[in-house]
Design goal:
Blueprint (H helix, E strand, L loop, with lengths): L2 H14 L3 H20 L4 E7 L4 E11 L8 E3 H7 L8 E5 L6 H29 L5 E10 L2 E6 L2 E5 L15 E12 L2 E7 L4 H10 L1 H5 L2 E9 L3 E8 L6 H6 L4 H9 L4 E6 L4 H8 L7 E5 L4 E6 L4 H5 L4 H10 L2 E6 H41 L9 H13 L5
Parallel strand pairs: 2-3, 11-12, 14-15
Antiparallel strand pairs: 1-2, 2-4, 5-6, 5-8, 6-7, 8-9, 10-11, 13-14
Helix pairs in contact: 2-4, 5-8, 9-11
């Protein structure tokens, strides 16, 4: 095989990004298949460098044995020593082959095997490349939309953006450049399929890593991300160096850095808050831009009771509860928010109920005390004489019988 063949392999290596070793193995397997097709026997086919022609030499590798049983794979010791006087049993000798003896059918088989193996190698290369990029953000071009699914061209690969991973407000117009989060890489019968996302919370994290050098360097750390795709997101950041303001680093000069991320997300609002190890401070920051008066923590239930000024209640809760919901996701705490007047009213109601209960208890206690006193007084009085003279008894009975009233 002359130098033109080797140049063709180098061209394939460059275009398909397949290593030369893989291509040579593919050619060897294809010619081995053609050899078996032509001679009905398997052989160890090898491509060796040919310095004379600056190309490759087609060889059949045979093992040196005492008695030859398979001439396609073995060589007698005497013949081997004629080729190489130092040959011994167990060595391997290369025997040159020519492609002329393979025939048209065998050559067609070799061609099919080469094409198939190169396609498989290309698919495997794509799968390995994108498997290593899981969780990364890549830039692609929108090619088309089919059945609510969008297809993004990522270099030589067409990635799938499913409807479930799309942001409803985003347009996804043809030929628009867009950044996507590599969510999954699957093997299919048609090759590797790359699935990407525009709704994943980690997309925010990766975009800030691209825009903020301090995050890429590890000086600023994103501790947590909470996102409602297309509407609003919150990120909590901390600094590993005292002199670096993590919020300022993410915002950038006149908001340039955060605005770049917002622009990439088609105007999605982003709140950047400072992370604190203390839960009270962290929850206070997470509820921004609302102002917080007090935060009471319940460690056992992992809950927080928050009091805000009356004019800050709607801001703290947010539209349809969005702000407090994102704050709860960001911090990992269940948050219950009440306004100052609501807490005051609740305390007054509880105080009134307690006073009413106290009065009722006092009344019951007073009645019981009076009853006890009456019973004690009755017990202390002397008993009245119940006896009477017999004559008086008889007179009374007679009067009753006669219908007279007894005074």
């Amino acid at each position: 095989m002359n130098g033109d063949f080797l140049d063709a392999l180098r061209q394939i290596e460059k275009e398909k990004e397949i290593p030369m070793e893989t291509l040579i193995e593919t050619i060897e397997a294809a010619i081995a298949s053609a050899y078996k097709k032509a001679f009905s026997e398997a052989a160890e086919i090898r491509l060796r460098p040919d310095p004379a022609k600056r190309g490759l030499r087609l060889c059949c590798e045979k093992e040196v044995v005492e008695v030859v049983e398979n001439p396609h794979r073995e060589m007698a010791l005497a013949e081997a020593q004629r080729r190489n006087p130092t040959a011994a049993v167990g060595d391997h000798i290369d025997v040159d082959l020519t492609a002329d003896g393979f025939g048209r059918i065998a050559a067609q088989t070799a061609k099919q095997v080469v094409v198939q193996r190169i396609r498989e190698a290309e698919r495997e290369k794509v799968f390995e490349d994108f498997s290593d990029r899981l969780g990364d953000v890549v830039t692609g071009t929108i090619q088309r939309k089919e059945h609510q699914n969008a297809f993004i061209q990522l270099g030589k690969v067409e990635a799938l953006l499913p409807a479930s991973e799309q942001v409803r407000q985003e347009p996804y117009r043809f030929n628009d450049r867009i950044k996507v989060y590599v969510l999954e890489v699957k093997r299919t019968s048609k090759g590797p399929q790359v699935i990407v996302s525009r709704t994943h919370p980690s997309l925010i994290r990766r975009l800030f890593e691209l825009e903020v050098p301090e995050i890429a360097d590890g000086v600023v750390v994103i501790k947590s991300v909470a996102r409602e795709a297309g509407a609003r997101s919150k990120i909590a950041v901390a600094s590993t160096e005292e002199k670096v303001d993590p919020v300022g680093a993410c915002v950038g000069h006149r908001g340039s850095r955060v605005q770049a991320v917002v622009h990439e997300l088609y105007g999605e609002k982003i709140d950047i808050v400072r992370w604190y190890a203390q839960a009270e401070e962290y929850i206070t920051q997470a509820l921004s831009p609302a102002q917080v008066m007090t935060v009471t923590i319940n460690e056992e239930q992992k809950s927080a009771f928050v009091i805000v000024p009356d004019n800050q209640l709607s801001l703290a809760i947010g539209k349809e509860g969005q702000n407090v919901r994102l704050a709860a996701r960001l911090t990992g705490w269940r948050i219950d928010i009440r306004s100052e007047s609501q807490v005051r009213e609740k305390l007054e109601n509880e105080r009134a109920a307690a006073e009413a209960a106290l009065k009722q208890t006092a009344t019951v206690n007073g009645t019981a005390h009076a009853l006890d006193g009456a019973l004690d007084a009755a017990a202390d009085e002397p008993a009245h004489e119940a006896s009477a003279e017999p004559e008086e008894i008889e007179a009374t009975a007679a009067a009753v019988e006669a219908g007279h009233t007894v005074a």
